[in-house]
Fold this protein.
Amino acid sequence: MKNKKCGKRFLRVLSAAAILLYFFSCKTAPKKIEAASVTFFIVDENDRAVPDFEICLWCNEKGECVKKQSGLTNETGFCTFYNLSATDYFVSGEKTGFTTIDMSELNIQKASELICFRVLGADFVLDQIEQFCAEGQYQKALEWLQALCTQQNSDFQNSVELLSSGLQQRINLSRQDKNQDLYKSDPYQDGVQ
C-alpha cells in the first residue's frame, strides 16, 4: 500500500513539473532585436551581379517617409546596411540602364537578413518592348519602358523619351481605331431602332 501511495505521489509531482515546464517554455518572450543588418544582392536577368546599383532604405516616421540609409552594391552585387532597428522599411533602388526597385516593403524581424532583387538590363527590356510592339501590346511595352532608369539629360534618356512618345501615340491610335470599330457596329448610331 505504501508503494502505491509513493507511486501516485511521484506521478503527481512529475505531472506538475511537466505542466510547469510547458508553461514556462511557452511564455518566454522572444528576444528583442537591438540592431539588425540587411544585405541586398542585386542580379540582372542572367543572374549576373549588378555593381554600383544604388539602394535606399526608407522608414515611416510620424507619417513621413524618411531616408535612413543608402549605399551602392559592390562588384559582386552586394550592399549591406548595419545597425537597423527591427521595424518596417521601404526599399528603393536604381542604376541607369536597369529597371528600378520601387518602394518594396521590408519588415526586419531577424538580426540578419539577405534579400535578393532581380533587375532587368536595358538591352533585355528593349528586346521585350520590340516583341510587345510586334504583338500589338503597346501599353505593356510602354510600362516596361517606363520601368527603366535613365540619367538626366543623357542620350539614353532622350531615346527613351522619344520611344515613349511614339508608343503613347500608337496607343492613342489603337484606342481611336477601336472606338471607330465600335461606332461602325452600333445599330443605333443613325437613330435606327
